[in-house]
Design goal:
The chain is built from 17 helices and 5 strands. It has 426 residues and is α/β, with parallel strands linked by helices. The protein has a 5-stranded mixed sheet. The radius of gyration is 35 Å and the shape is flat. It starts with a helix and ends in a 21-residue tail after the last helix.
Length: 426
C-alpha cells in the first residue's frame, strides 16, 4: 500500500476505536449506560462538597473584611465625650448627662464645620485649610461585649482616642460652672452668667483650642474676631514650633496681612510657611495672590503652577493663574483654558461667577463679542442665584439665632437650662 492508503487505514482504526466500537457496545448492552451515569448519591455528595467550599470562602472573606474595618476604625483618631455629670435636680428636669454630652459634641462639630475658608470671599483673597481636625462622638453606655466596645478598647490601648469628661455644677448665685478634662487632665473651667447653652459652647471651643488651636483660629477669623485670631496664632507659633500646625498658623498670619493690603509682609509669611511645609499648596496660592496684587505676574504664575503641581484640583490656583495670564500678560487663550478648568472643578459659587466674567473679558479683548455676551449672561444668572441663596441663608440663620438666644438668663441654674434639648425631645 502506498502512503495515502496507510494514512486512511490509520484514521479508520482511530474512529472505530473511539466512536464505533463504544456505540456498538452500548447498542448490544444498554445497561452500560446506567454504569456511565453518576448516581444521585454522588451528585448530592458533589453538591455538598461545593457548598462547603463556598461557605468556607464566604466566612473567610467576611472575617478578613471585618478585620480590615475594625483595623481602620481603630487607626482613626477620635475624640469621645463621656456623659457630663450634672446635679440631680437638672437630671430630674430631663437635662441629663447624655444630653449635655450630645450638645458638647454638636458644638465641637459646629466649630470645625465653620473653620474653613469663608465662602463669601469673592476676590483673590487669602485662603486656609481647616478641614475637621478630628472626629468627635459621645460615649454610648455599653452593656456586655459588642464590636463598638471592642473598637473603643483597642483605640484606647493604641492611644488613638482622647476622652473628654467633666461636670456641670451650680456655683454661687446659681451660675453654671462647667469643668472639662481631656484624658483626666483638666483643660478648662467655664463659668459665665448666661445660659447653659452658652457655657457648653464656650466649653467646646476650649476643647478645640487644646486639641487643635489652628482650627479655632480659623473659626474666629470667619466670625471677624481678629483679636482672638491673633492671640491663637501667637500661641501656636510658641507651642507648636516646627510643626504642620505652625505652617498653617503662619499662612493665616499672611492672610491677615493681605487683608490689610500689607502684601510684601504677607509674602514673607507665605514663604516661611512653605519653608516649614514645602508641600503646603494653600500657602503657594496665597503667595501667588499677594504677588499678583503687587503686579509681579511672573512670580505669581510660578507660585500658582507650583500649587497646581501639588494639588491639580485646586480651583483657586487655576483662577489666579488665569487672572495673571489675562490681566498681567495678555495671553488670552491660555487664560481662558484656566477659567474653563476652574469651572470644571465646581468651586465655591462666587469663583464660578468670577471665572465666567474673566472669560468674558478675554473674549472681549479678542474681539469675540457674541461669545463674550453669552458668558456675561451666564455670569449674571449665577450671580442672581447666588444672591437668592444668600438671602435665604441669612433668613435661616437669623431665625435660628433668635430661637436659640432669645432666652434671658435670670441667674438661676435651674432656669437657664430652658434652652437645652431635653432627653424626652420636648
Amino acid at each position: 500500500m502506498d502512503e495515502s492508503e496507510v494514512r486512511s487505514a490509520t484514521i479508520r482504526r482511530i474512529i472505530a476505536k473511539s466512536f464505533v466500537e463504544p456505540v456498538g457496545a452500548l447498542l448490544r448492552d444498554p445497561a452500560l449506560v446506567i454504569r456511565w451515569v453518576p448516581s444521585v448519591r454522588q451528585v448530592r455528595e458533589n453538591l455538598e462538597h461545593l457548598r462547603g467550599i463556598v461557605n468556607n470562602t464566604v466566612v473567610t472573606v467576611s472575617v478578613i473584611t471585618m478585620g480590615l474595618i475594625v483595623a481602620l476604625e481603630v487607626y482613626e483618631y477620635r475624640v469621645m465625650v463621656e456623659p457630663i455629670e450634672v446635679p440631680q435636680a437638672l437630671a430630674d428636669m430631663g437635662y441629663t448627662s447624655q444630653v449635655l454630652a450630645q450638645r458638647l459634641v454638636a458644638e465641637i462639630e459646629e466649630v470645625q464645620a465653620n473653620a474653613g475658608t469663608d465662602p463669601t470671599r469673592n476676590r483673590l483673597e487669602g485662603e486656609w485649610s481647616a478641614s475637621p481636625a478630628f472626629d468627635v462622638d459621645w460615649v454610648v453606655p455599653q452593656v456586655g461585649l459588642s464590636i463598638r466596645a471592642m473598637v473603643e478598647h483597642l483605640r484606647s490601648f493604641f492611644q488613638r482616642t482622647t476622652i473628654v469628661s467633666g461636670e456641670l455644677i451650680c456655683g454661687e448665685s446659681g451660675i453654671p460652672v462647667l469643668t472639662l478634662r481631656l484624658d483626666k487632665r483638666s483643660v478648662a473651667e467655664v463659668s459665665v452668667e448666661t445660659t447653659i447653652a452658652q457655657v457648653i459652647e464656650d466649653g467646646a471651643r476650649e476643647v478645640v483650642k487644646t486639641l487643635n488651636p489652628y482650627v479655632l483660629a480659623a473659626y474666629h477669623y470667619n466670625r471677624k474676631e481678629r483679636a482672638k485670631v491673633e492671640d491663637l496664632l501667637t500661641l501656636i507659633t510658641l507651642n507648636h514650633a516646627g510643626t504642620e500646625i505652625e505652617a498653617q498658623a503662619i499662612n493665616m498670619q499672611g492672610v491677615l496681612l493681605s487683608d490689610d493690603d500689607n502684601f510684601r509682609q504677607a509674602i514673607e509669611r507665605y514663604g516661611r510657611a512653605t519653608e516649614l511645609d514645602p508641600e503646603y499648596e494653600i500657602a503657594y496660592v496665597n503667595w501667588g495672590h499677594a504677588l499678583y496684587s503687587i503686579r509681579e505676574y511672573d512670580g505669581a504664575m510660578a507660585k500658582y503652577r507650583r500649587a497646581i503641581e501639588l494639588q491639580p484640583q485646586l480651583a483657586g490656583a487655576h483662577l489666579g493663574l488665569g487672572y495673571a495670564l489675562l490681566y498681567g500678560k495678555g495671553r488670552y487663550n491660555e487664560a481662558i483654558a484656566q477659567f474653563k478648568r476652574t469651572i470644571e472643578l465646581r468651586p465655591r459659587p462666587r469663583r464660578v461667577v468670577l471665572a465666567y466674567r474673566s472669560w468674558a473679558d478675554a473674549l472681549q479683548l479678542m474681539g469675540k463679542h457674541e461669545e463674550r455676551q453669552a458668558k456675561m449672561t451666564k455670569s449674571a444668572q449665577l450671580a442672581a442665584q447666588l444672591a437668592d441663596s444668600e438671602l435665604s441663608l441669612r433668613s435661616v440663620v437669623s431665625d435660628e439665632s433668635g430661637a436659640e438666644y432669645s432666652y434671658v438668663s435670670l441667674g438661676v441654674c435651674m432656669e437657664v437650662a430652658a434652652d437645652l434639648p431635653r432627653e424626652d425631645g420636648k
